[in-house]
C-alpha cells in the first residue's frame, strides 16, 4: 500500500494505491493525518483509483479522516471508488458524511 499526497489551492489529495487492510491502514492513516494536520485543507480528497482491495479498515480510514478534517471545518471527498468496493462504503453510511465522485475532476 502506498499513498502519494498532493497539496494544491487549499486541497489535499491522497492518491491511494494497493490494498487497504488492518496491516496497511495504520501507515496510510499516519501519513495522511500528519500532512493534513500541517496544512489544514478545506478539502481532503481520498482517491481510490489505485485500490484493488479494501476491508473494514478502509471504512475506518475514511471515517477517521472525516472526523479529523471536520475539526477545522473541512470536508472529505471520496473519489474513484472501485465499483466492487462501493457496497462496503454505502453500507457504512459514508455517502451521508462525504462527497462521493467518480472522478476527481467532478468536484
TrEMBL record:
Domain of life: Bacteria
Signal peptide: none
The protein, known as: Anti-sigma factor antagonist
Residue stretches spanning the membrane: none
Example GO molecular function: anti-sigma factor antagonist activity
PROSITE patterns xrefs: STAS (PS50801)
Similarity section: Belongs to the anti-sigma-factor antagonist family.
Xref: InterPro entries: Anti-sigma_ant, STAS_dom, STAS_dom_sf
PANTHER family with a match to the protein in the record: ANTI-SIGMA FACTOR ANTAGONIST TM_1081-RELATED (PTHR33495:SF2), ANTI-SIGMA FACTOR ANTAGONIST TM_1081-RELATED-RELATED (PTHR33495)
Domain STAS: 1-107
Amino acid at each position: 500500500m502506498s499513498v502519494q499526497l498532493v497539496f494544491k489551492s487549499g486541497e489535499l489529495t491522497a492518491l491511494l494505491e494497493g490494498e487497504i487492510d488492518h496491516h496497511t491502514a495504520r501507515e496510510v492513516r499516519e501519513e495522511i493525518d500528519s500532512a493534513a494536520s500541517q496544512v489544514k485543507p478545506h478539502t481532503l480528497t481520498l482517491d481510490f483509483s489505485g485500490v484493488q482491495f479494501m476491508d473494514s479498515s478502509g471504512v475506518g480510514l475514511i471515517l477517521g479522516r472525516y472526523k479529523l478534517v471536520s475539526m477545522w471545518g473541512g470536508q472529505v471527498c471520496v473519489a474513484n471508488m472501485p465499483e466492487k468496493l462501493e457496497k462496503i462504503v454505502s453500507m457504512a453510511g459514508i455517502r451521508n458524511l462525504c462527497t462521493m465522485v467518480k472522478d476527481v475532476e467532478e468536484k
